[in-house]
Amino acid sequence: MQKGVEDKGKYNFRNNITIDWCPGCGDFGIVSAVTQALSNMNMDPDDVVAVSGIGCSGKTPHYLNIAGVHTLHGRAIPYAVGVKLSNPNLNVLVMGGDGDLLSIGAGHFVGEGRRNSGVKVILYNNSVYGLTKGQAAPTLPLGEKVKSLARPNIMGKINPITLAMASGYSFVARAFSSEIKQLSAIIERAIKHEGSAVIEVLQPCPTYNDVNTLDWYRQRVYKLEDDKSWNPVVNKKEEDEEKFDTGYRKSLEWGDHIPIGIFYENNTIPSYTNRLAGIVPDYLKYPPALQDVSDKDGYTIVDPIKTFEEKDIE
Amino acid sequence: MQETDINLLVGGPQGGGIDSAANMISMAFSLAGYNIYGIREFHSNIKGRHSYIHFRIMHERPKSLKYPVDIMVALDPDTLFEHMFDVAKGSKVVYDSAFNTFNLKNARMITSDTMTRIQDELAERNLTFDVKGVLDYFKSAGIDVIAIPFDKLINENVHDGPANRYYNTLGAGTTLALLGLDEDHADDGIKFAFKKKPKVIESNIKVIKAAYDYVKTSPIKVATLPTYPATPRMLLTGNDATALGKLMGGLRFQTYYPITPASDESTLLESHEEMKFLKNADEVVKKAGLVVVQCEDELSAINMANGAALTGTRSATATSGPGFSLMAEGIGYAGMTEIPVVITFYQRGGPSTGLPTRNGQADLLFALNTGHGEFPKMVISSGDMEECIYDGMKSLNYAQRYQMPVIHLIDKTLANTMDLVPEIDVKKVKIVKYNENTNHENFKRYSLDTENGISPYGVFGKDIFWMTGDEHDELGHVTEDSAMRDKMMEKRMQKLITADKEIPLEDKAVLYGDENADITYVTWGSQKSLLLDTISELKKQGISANLLYLRMFEPFPSEYVEKVLRKSHLIIDVESNMTGQAAKVIRMNTGVNIENFILKYNGRHITLDEVLRSTKNIMEKKTALEVLQEGS
Hints:
The complex is a heterodimer of chains A (314) and B (632).
Chain A: H1 27-40, E1 48-52, E2 67-70, H2 76-86, E3 91-97, H3 98-104, H4 106-115, E4 120-125, E5 128-129, E6 135-136, H5 160-167, E7 171-176, H6 180-192, E8 197-202, H7 214-220, E9 221-223, E10 233-234, H8 240-251, E11 258-266, H9 272-277, H10 304-307, E12 312-313
Parallel strand pairs in A: 1-2, 1-3, 3-4, 4-8, 7-8, 9-11, 10-11
Antiparallel strand pairs in A: 5-6, 7-11
Helix pairs in contact in A: 1-6, 3-4, 4-5
Chain B: E1 5-13, H1 18-31, E2 35-41, E3 50-58, E4 69-74, H2 77-82, E5 87-96, H3 112-124, H4 131-140, E6 144-148, H5 150-157, H6 167-179, H7 183-193, H8 201-217, E7 233-236, H9 238-248, E8 253-256, H10 263-270, H11 283-286, E9 291-294, H12 298-309, E10 315-320, H13 321-337, E11 341-347, H14 364-369, E12 378-381, H15 385-402, E13 405-411, H16 412-415, E14 417-421, E15 466-468, H17 482-502, E16 509-512, E17 519-524, H18 527-540, E18 545-550, E19 552-554, H19 558-567, E20 570-575, H20 581-590, E21 596-599, H21 608-619, E22 625-627
Parallel strand pairs in B: 1-4, 4-5, 5-6, 8-9, 8-10, 10-11, 11-13, 12-13, 17-18, 17-20, 20-21, 21-22
Antiparallel strand pairs in B: 1-3, 2-3, 2-14, 7-14, 12-19, 16-18
Helix pairs in contact in B: 1-6, 1-7, 6-8, 7-8, 9-10, 9-15, 12-13
C-alpha cells in the first residue's frame, strides 16, 4: 500500500492484487474509469469506500487501493448506506452486477431511490450471471438466447435507467465500458452530486454473452452530450417535470441506437443525510461515527431519566 | 394486617383506550406508593378485537401474575365471555349495564373457534348464550357483579365528544374507587396518562369524579386502601427498557423494519434521536445524536447495521422471528468478517407468521444455529426490566469487545410487561470499546498475531483494508489457501473461548435459592421473576425449591450448569415452547437429561397459579410433562 504518498495526485488507486477476470471483460474498463476519476479529483484515499455484492463485479473492491467491502449477494446497497449514514463525510461507491442489483437486490435498489442517501451505484450490465456460468440476468431481453442458455430467455428485461428514475434517484446515467473517458467523467460528476446516483455500465461478457458483444455495442452506442441541446440537469423545481419526462422517454430507446450519457440529474432533491441533519442535532458535524459514547472514566453519558422523561414518575 | 395483593384485569376492544386505562391505573397506584406488574395481551388487529391487561398491585414489587383475578373490568361484552373463568368466589366484576341484554351471537369480533368454545362452556352449565348467562354463572359462583350505567354517568357529567370516548376512564375510575384508592391519586393517574393531551385532562377528571360519586352512593362496601410515600421510579416495558439500555450503552445507529413485537423499541428510539446527557459528560461528547433508519426489509436492516459498524459506530437492529429469518445471512457475514453488531430478537409465537402478538420462546435453537457454516456469535437472554437495561448495554459491549454479532433474546411477554423500575445505575456497566488499531500503515485487519483471537479493529475513514464473506487473508483479501483457512477459522472461533473466560458467571447462569433444595427449576427469559415468586410461595408451603436461571447460551456455561444439575434432585424445565429447547441445549452441552417439563405454547404468559399446580402434579409423579393452557 502507498498510504504514505504525500502528493495525493500521485496516489495509485489500483493496488497490486492480481485481477482474475476473463481477458476482454468489460469490468477492466470500469476499474480504469474509477481509478481515473478518483485520481482526477485528487481524492484522499481515506475518504472513499468501495462496496460490492457477489459475482465478478463483487471482486472490484479488492483491486482498488481504498477501503473495500465485498458483501453478500444483493446487499451491497444496504452496506453502503450504513457506511454513508453513519459517516456522511465518506464517498461511498457501490459496484454491483445486473443480477445482484436488479434481481436478488432489487428491493434495495428501489429503496435507495426513495432514501437518496448519497451513495453512487455503478451497475455492471452484461446481461448474464457470469460467475455461475452464464444464466440470464434480469437485463437480458425476452427471447434472447446467449450461449449457455438451454432455451431462449423466457422472461422480460428490466430497464435499469427507467427503474432508477422511477425509484427516485436524482442522478441517472449510462455508460459503456470501452468509453472509459466518458465513464470516468460521469463517475466524477456523480461523486460531486449530493444525492444518490445510478450509473449503468454496458459491458461485454466475452465468455457467456455471445450476443451483446463488444462490437455489437460499438456499432450502437451514441453519446447524449453529442447533441448540444441535451441538458438533463434540474436546478430549479419547475424544470423537473419536463426534464424528467425527456430523460424518461430517452431511457426507452434501445436497439439499433443506444444512448449513453447522463439521462437525469436533479439538484433540487435534498439527500437523506441533509434531511437527517434537520432532525438529529449536529449530525453532519458529529455523525455517529465521530461521536464518543462514554465519559472520561468510561461510563455512559446518556441520562436515563431525562431521556425518557415521559416515563418518569415522581 | 394482610398485605395488599390485588390481581386486576381490564378488558375491552382494541383501540378502545385500554392502554390509557392501564396507564391511568398504574400511575394512580404508583403515586399512592404501590408497585405494579402488568402484561398486555392483544390480537393482531387495529380496532375492535378483544385485548386486555392483567395487573398485579402490591406494595413490594410484584414479579408475577395470578389467576383468578380479584377484580375484572369489562369495557366490552367480549371480556365477560372470554374471561368467565378468570374470576372466582369473592372476585368483583365491573361492567357496563348496557351489556345486560347482549347476545353472544352479536359478538362479531370473537373468532369462530373461541365462540364454539364459549358456547360449549355455557351449554355445559345450562346457561343461556348471552351476557345474562355469564352473569348467572358469576352470581352462582359467588362473584360480585357490579353493573355501572356507563352512558348515563358520562352524559350527565361531560359534554365533550361521544360517551364511548370516556368508557376507559370510567372503567378505570370505578375500579380504583372499588379498590378503595383515594380520589386524588386517581386524578393524578389521569394527569399522567394524558400528559401529552392536556386538553382532555379536565373532562376525564370529571368522569373520575362521577365514578367515585357513584360508588360512594351505591350500597357497595369499600375498604380504604392504605397509601405510602411514592419513591421515584420509571414505568417501563421490556421494549422501553431495552431501548434505554442500548442508548446508555452507546448505540448511535439503529435499523429496523416494522414488526410486532419488536418495532416499539425502534419507534421509541426514533422519537429520541436528539439525546439527553448527564451533567458530567463532556461538552463535545454531548454533541451526539442517534440515527434510526426504517429500512425496506430486514435484509436491509441487518446489512445496513453491519455497514454502519464499519465506520466505528455502535450499531444494532431489532426484530422478531420472521425478520430474524431474513437476517440469517447477514448475521453470518458479521460472524465471518468480524463485525460488531447487535440483533435484539423479540420472540413471538411461531412458526411462520404464527401468533404475531403472543408470547413464545421457540427461537432459542434458531438463534443458536442461525446462518450457515461455523462462525462465532453470542446469544444472550434477558428476563426482567433491569436485565433488559443492563444487557442492552452489555450486548453492545460484547459486540465491540469480541467483534461478532450478538443476539439478544427477549420474549413478547417481557416486551409487553409494564413494571416500575426503581433505580437505574449509570455506573453499573462500563462502556467497553473495540480494540483500536494504532498502525494505520499496512494495516492487517485480520492480523493473526493475536492469542485471544481479537485483531485490531479498523474503521473506514481512518484505515484502508478489505472485507469479504469469502475466506480471507490478514489484509481481508479472498484466499482459498488451505492453511490460511484453518488459521482464520481458529482465530475467529478463539474469540468465543476468550469471551467465555472473560465474562463473569453471573452474566451467564445464576442459581437462585437454597443450593440443596428439593426442586430445581430451570428456565430463561420472562419466567425468571415468575419462578422467583414460585420459590417464595413454595417456601411458605414448606417446600424448598431453587432456580437455575440461564442468561447466556453462546458461549454456554456448561461446566457450571452441569455442576448444579448433577447435584439437583427433582429438575423441572419451565419454558414457553413445545419442545423444551433450553433443556436440549443443556443436554447437548452437559449430557444432563432433564426429564420433567412445564411448557406453554398457547402464546400466553405463564402465571403463578399454573406453575404451582403443575409443580404439585410433577412432585406427586402424576406426570412428567405439564402443558399449561391458561389465558384468553
